[in-house]
Amino acid sequence: MTTPHEDDATARPGLGPLLRHQVPLLLLVLALVAGLGFASRGVEAPRGTDAPEDAFSAARASEAAAPVVAAPRPVGSAANDAAREELDEQLTELGFATSTQEGVGTRVIDGEGAAGFTQNLVGVRPGTDPTGTIVLATHIDSVPHAPGAADAGIGLATILETVRALGPEARRNDLVVLLVDGEERGLLGAQAYLDEGAEELTEPVVVLNHEARGISVRPLVTRTSGPMHEVLGSMPHPEYEPFTDALFELIPNDTDFTVYRDAGWWGMDMAIIDGAWAYHSPQDDASHLDQGSLQHYGDMTLALTDELVDRDLVALGESSGTTPVQTTAPWGILRLPPVLLTVLGLLGPLAILAAILVERRRGRLTLRGVALGAVAGLIGLVLAVGAALLTWQLATAATPGMLSQTTREPVRAEPFLIADLAAGAVGVALCWVLARLLIGRAALLAGTGMAVSALLAVLAVLAPALGSSMLPPAILAAAGTLVATLLPPRPGLVVRLLALLPTGWMLGAQISSLMDFGIASSAGALAGTTAIGLGAAAPLLIGRGREEGRAARRPRRLLIPVLPAVLTAALVAGGTAWTLASPEPVQEGVVARIDGSTGMTTWEVSGATAWGRELDGTTSSSDVPPPSVEVEDLQSAGTGADGDRRVRLLITSPREAARLELTTSAGDLRDVSVDGEPLGADPSGTPLRRVQIAGAPQDEPVTVEATVEDAAALELVETTSDPTIAGGWVEPGEEVSLMQPRVQIAVEI
């Protein structure tokens, strides 16, 4: 029996071409819109020094930061001091009252205590009638052996050019430039400022923190706090997805924004993240930093700062209600109430279920077929992610030398990222072919859409912000499915086309964004995102012919997954060869471990090059003076068979910018203080296993007090970044890039 809609479709020849080829048409539109979404994430063209005075210029910003990013500047080094002096001079010329805050910053996380001798630079321009304080923040220090042109030289360049473009006149709100020290060693300068210098700020405080984990591509707003959703639209071409906040729980990175947000400040964290292979390496220099990224970064910061310095910040906080779920749309930031997104997310699978029941009455599918389709869809999703992860694991196991030592990224990640998608296609295609042996296409598409929509509905209930980019397109696809099912073929096709547009845009934009994170961070996520997006929109691809309900028992279709499998292998092989042929030097991690009492030295090298493999495992003797340690027992208090003891250590390092690490052979370290600054208790309650001290002043004693078990031995390890002082050192050629080389001198106390 045919339905009136089907009779209409077959009785009107003029509709034939479109209706007979509607699935290819839908897929073509989906691909075109995805391409537009992918291409939308460009950066601004860099402006030269001839740009208007009130505009941001990447060229002027680069010139301002050039003296600072010319060399590495780890905390406690002479280069760090020189950079701070240069920045102080520039801020003074720009009309800021500057001061240097010296102190010991301390933090305790996961059983590890960190302390650092930091010197923060603070520039203040009081407002004319302040309703709060705007803070432009980044950090001065870099890791050893990395000039830090991006991390966080791009922040320094952005802030200097922003305050220049704003002009010397005071605005309504207080404006503070906060350039902290010791970020790379545990966010120590930011914590020191919050502990000792922030009480004078007019509240509320809004901070714009500038960071980088790469060297290129569009800056992202990675985290927010407070009513920033009210002002994000002030920035040109902003990009923000709340799920990036969750990524900080997965990747081994943190920024000063964590400290500021914990202190109750409003604001946002921004970063560029593509080209992560150069992160914390000598290649994080001015020649590798993308000037378009700097221009885009600066345009965003200047526009938002210009808005905030004249805004009534108290009223901004009072007018802001519940924090909405936000996502990046073609026209800017889309804001949705969490409750609305949750309700609509729950209605999505119900809309698809209603469409399924309508098609069942028409005899085009069965509930059993839909159930099998749902199972197949979920299996396909798992296979897609698993195949992508396995592909990347096999690639890295075969050629580990092509990976960076910090982020495990290849220099040229693009082929591997595309291979992620191709491997996912293998899993989906295999599942599709096998399922089609049992059920028709309509049942498979409907079941897949039902299963994926149900998963997204669960996400909409538990954490709608994490599904900010996927939920709206999936909801519109579900609504479009139901409406198109109820309409005649021609308007139904129009509805399907329109309902597919958000999915296409989301796929293009999100694939591009995930590619920025790099293959090591997004492996499997590209395939998974694509599979979820297509799965939610799958019911829109159901045609209107009777053949949709039939299984296709054609074993030769098992050859279909072969094509993406061959493509995956070719991309991995080609990507590996292309990466190995890169003109960039190969990164090597180098550690020399020296016994402070005997001078015995052992070299450990990552071994990615012939030079590294030859040096790795060799031993020699070093004539390197160890740090001196004076020990004083302050008291003994029996608390058990052995009791505890309170000790004071006077530690003096003969080297610049040394890092000290104190550990105990038994028990834990309690009630620790560094130069009189106490290390607080770990928020998680984890006992303190070790203490690191960054930026120890050269030839000046550092006082450490701690309570330890009476029978426990203490070990001090001093780390410096100059490998040439260790015996057995062999200078590498230009083809080798040393990644934060370390010389560790161990002393038993």
TrEMBL record:
Keywords of the record: Membrane, Transmembrane, Transmembrane helix
Residues spanning the membrane: 339-358, 370-395, 415-435, 442-463, 469-487, 494-511, 517-537, 558-581
Annotated InterPro entries: M28_fam, Peptidase_M28
Stretches the record annotates as Disordered: 613-641
Residue intervals of the Peptidase M28 domain: 120-304
Transmembrane found in the keyword field: yes
Name of the protein in its database record: M28 family peptidase
